[in-house]
Each structure stands twice: as structure tokens, then as C-alpha cells.
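Predict both folds.
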Amino acid sequence: MESFSEAENVISSSLIKRILYSKEIGMTALLLLSLLGFYFFAWRNARFFIVPTGSMEPTLYPEDMIVTLEQSKYQRGDIVVAYDDGDYVVKRIVGLPGDNISVMDGALFINGKYASEPYMFEPMDYFIERPVRVPDGRFFFLGDNRNHSEDSSLGFIAGSGERVRSNPYAYLGYLDLIIGKVHFIYYPYSRFGWVRSYPLINTAGQ
């Protein structure tokens, strides 16, 4: 039995060496890596970003290094990186064209219906009493750390006085300026893993 086991180990070791040093296998692996690279970088426009603030806590933290991929279509609940007012922002889409967005009693309402958001850091301490209808080509975005986030709410907060500008819709994002959906945290290693979106589907029209 011992001789048979030793012979088996020698054969296994020899097979592993042939696989590791095989030119054909090496070329195949290189081809697969090239195809994956083409898919993610050329086809899906993979981009790398560092989360700048705590506005997306507890989902994303400052200094998290993230990967985005371009989508053919974006959904409510997607976390995206978008170009906004001369800078990149990392926020969650809560409203798409045609949606009516409001905030009452610390909760988000989409098209007049309560939207469950278990990822929020804490309930919102502001109101958007008059529903905001999202125009074509735009989207309403919020941070998960709602009370410490510069987002679309700033143009519409009830009674905010100086915080409401002459053009509140300037605080909405443009769909064609979305860079991509956040899919992955690659650093720090303690937070290495996928970033899941939470679909906001408990709304009218779904």
C-alpha cells in the first residue's frame, strides 16, 4: 500500500508540473485573462474610485476603494458614481424619470408609497412635503447617511430657507452623467467583497 501511495504521489506531482509549465495551458489562461480584461474594461467600462466622505455610511465608508461597471439601465436602489457639478459623487438612486419623491416622518415615499430602506444610517430629520416629480433624463439621488449627505434633497427640503436655491432641480443628477454602478470594494481588505444594491420595488408602477 505504501509503494502504491508513493507512486500515486509521484504521478500527481508530475501531472501538476506538466499543467503548470504547459505552454498550451499558459496561452489559454492568458487568452481568458485578456477576454476578461476586454469585457470589464472595454465593454463594461470598469472604473476605480475612492469614497471621499461618510455620506454613504454604513454601506460605504470614507477611503473605501470601489469598482464601478457601466450598466445598460439603472434602477432605483442602485449605488452609482456620477459626475455632478464638476466632481464625482457616490450616491444611491431613489427616483427615476416620472417618479414622485417625498420625505415624511423620517421615511422615503416614492409615488405616494412608503419605500423600505434597511440600509439607512438613521431616519431622515427633514421633510420634502411637496412631491418632487423627476423630469426626463434626470434622477433623484440620496446618501445612505441621509442627515449628513449633500444630495438631491438639498433643493427641496421644506422650510430650509437659504438651502433652497432658485433652481432646486439643479440638485438632481443626469442619467447620462452616471459613470457606473458600484459593484465591488477591493480595499481595505477587511471590507473586500461585493456591494449589493437594494431594489426599491415596493412602489406604484412596479
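Second protein follows, with its predicted C-alpha cells after the sequence.
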Amino acid sequence: MRRLSTAVVGVALLWASVPLAAHHSFAAEFDENQPISLRGTLTKMEWTNPHGWLHVDVKGPDGKVVNWAIEAGGPNALIRRGLRLTDFPIGSELVIEGYRAKNGSPTANGKTVKFADGRNFFLGAGDPDNKAAY
């Protein structure tokens, strides 16, 4: 009986730790010393928790198009800032300010998004000032 109890507690602890792996700190993945500005066309919007993701085709100086993944705040955070999923139709032209991923991939933590009509919003995926994702 003691072995069964130990096994049940062990499995419960493993399951309880799964959500922890999904969340991360800003400093673990992104470099505050590598700010980036991206202008491109929205190809996909993931309206998910704990973070949303914007996928944007960005044309480089060489003319090559690269699809960037931009981490944003979760749906509730974006809604509180005045954004809705309907604000992100595929094909929208966006300008995104943020911070590059440390691993060199075409991934960034979004700070702001500016729409073609001039609207500008805080994406709120992470806070480089106190290195915490929220």
C-alpha cells in the first residue's frame, strides 16, 4: 500500500509541474540588448495562453522573405489593452518592435504592434525591465 501511495504522489507531482514548463522568463529566451523592428505581413495569429503568437512574413534587405514568430501577451492581456482577435486579419501589414531570441532563430518577444491605420498597441509578452513574463 505504501508503494502505491508513493507512486500516486509521484505522478501527481509530475502532472502538477507540467504548467511550469510552459511559462518562462523574458531573460531565458530573449535578449534585451538586441532590439528589433520588423515590418511585414501577418500570416497567422495564435490567440492562445499563456502567450499569443503573431507570425509575420518579413522581407530582408536581400529580398528573401522570412517568417518570424512574435510572442505576445495572452488573450486576456491583449483584450485589456484594447486588442481583439478581429484586429489581426491575415494579410495585415504590421510594424512590430521587440527583442530578438537568444538562439538566433526568427523569433522575437513583441513589445509593440503598429497597424497600417496608425493604431499602436503594447503587445505585453514580457517586461525586459524586470525580466519577468506575464
